[in-house]
Amino acid sequence: MPSFLPLFLFSLIILLPIYLFLSTTRKSPKNTPPGSFGIPFIGQSLSLLWAMRANTADEWIAARARRYGAVSKLSLFGTPTVFIYGQAANRFVFSGDGNKLSNQQTDSVRMVLGDRCLLELVGEDHKRIRNALSSFLKPDSLRNYIGKMEEEVLMHLRMHWHGKNNLKVLPLMKTLTFNIICSLLFGVERGAVRDTLVLYFQEMIDGIWSIPLNLPFTRFNRSLKASAKVKKMLSHLISEKRAQLAAGASSHQDLITCLLTSHDSQLVSDDEIIHNVMLIMVAGHDTSSVLITFMVRVLANHPEIHAAVLVEQEGIKKGGALLTWEDLGKMKYTWRVAMETLRMFTPLYGGFRKTLEDIEYQGYTIPKGWQILWVSGMTHMDDSIFPEPSKFDPGRFENPAGVPPYTYIPFGGGARICPGYEFAKIETLITIRYLVTHFTWKLCCNDNRFRRDPMPVPTQGLPIQIMPRKELALTA
């Protein structure tokens, strides 16, 4: 039997693209947007991924827009896709009819995270799960977890920053955000379980955006295997949480216990809990770590902005007490710096929707079952919306209401805005506060380029030299 394996794999590689190409091109409706599907099955997936990793994705997208206009078709990750951009496109994506347009992601994302997460659900299912998640993620609930998050930040600084001279920011921020997720979402403290979970998690996200070719030598195959291990661990954790709740434990320890005891708990299945915890796990880990990392780079490159953030933070006197919700509300300038960082270095380059029926858009037909790709940077870097878009200017957000709707979309928009927005905001503000009040730093690498994989990754993980600002005990 083993002697037939190479022949089988060769035949699969040759025949599968042909089958998929024929299945996606037959009976194609007329009046679809201009463009080409490219190489069968592969399409433009590799060229886009290469452009993202080389930090030329904006040029790749702009060249496509010049060639085909505001609407064009292509093939990404094995699926026919229509690319749209601009304020009208963002409005169409984020305020569209949920019965016609689904928030479904690529096959690779869906297969790794599961088909019952918020990205996949529509209509009443989407509303039900979103309401259940909001029982933990809404501001009124999160204010009760500020102290726990602050303790994680302080412990991280003691372990990884205090007493050090040189370090790389991005890997450390990924460590910090994962520890916060483990603590607040799962109630998993430091130890063997958390260490095992982080290994599986890293393997899982390495192939989450890839061509969904499930063969032994692919990143996607390794990602699927790691995903199965994470799901198994979360299933065991749910059983443990149920037992703890039955023994009288608090129903607000973490996200899982909140989901198990929410008003809709009888309607939320274990699969839905697992898939949505994994979604928030991925989103919270990547977006927050990237945002904080690029804020560190911005503050190093703009001393005047660093000084203004420091003045604001030192004006919030605590005398050793933990931060409060009111303290976070005073960090207005710090958050404007974060918003401008998100505009210029948006963690999520774009996203996908899926048509549930034939849709008419700008005179073209987008057939049922096709993907729609939107890209945030097309409006974030539009000089008609944000003058001098390459200039870093936190003042753009002094009056957020003055920013045209559906042009600033790092967290999405409308009913589909990211439910973890406030979680990310609190995490960012607390971390930046303690970084600027305890340390000063300078970049060890003058290369300001970055690549996307698919999140933005600064050169060498952003190496910096740090100096203690003053001798302060990092205690809660």
TrEMBL record:
It is found in: Membrane. GO terms for biological process: sterol metabolic process; terpenoid biosynthetic process. Belongs to the cytochrome P450 family. It holds the Pfam family p450. Its main location: membrane. Residues 1-23 form the signal peptide. GO terms for molecular function: heme binding; iron ion binding; oxidoreductase activity, acting on paired donors, with incorporation or reduction of molecular oxygen, reduced flavin or flavoprotein as one donor, and incorporation of one atom of oxygen. It is a single-pass membrane protein. One of its GO terms (cellular component) is membrane. SUPFAM superfamilies: Cytochrome P450. Heme binds at residue 418. It comes from the Eukaryota. Keywords: Heme, Iron, Membrane, Metal-binding, Monooxygenase, Oxidoreductase, Signal, Transmembrane, Transmembrane helix. InterPro entries: Cyt_P450 (IPR001128), Cyt_P450_CS (IPR017972), Cyt_P450_E_grp-I (IPR002401), Cyt_P450_sf (IPR036396). Its cofactor is heme. This is Uncharacterized protein.
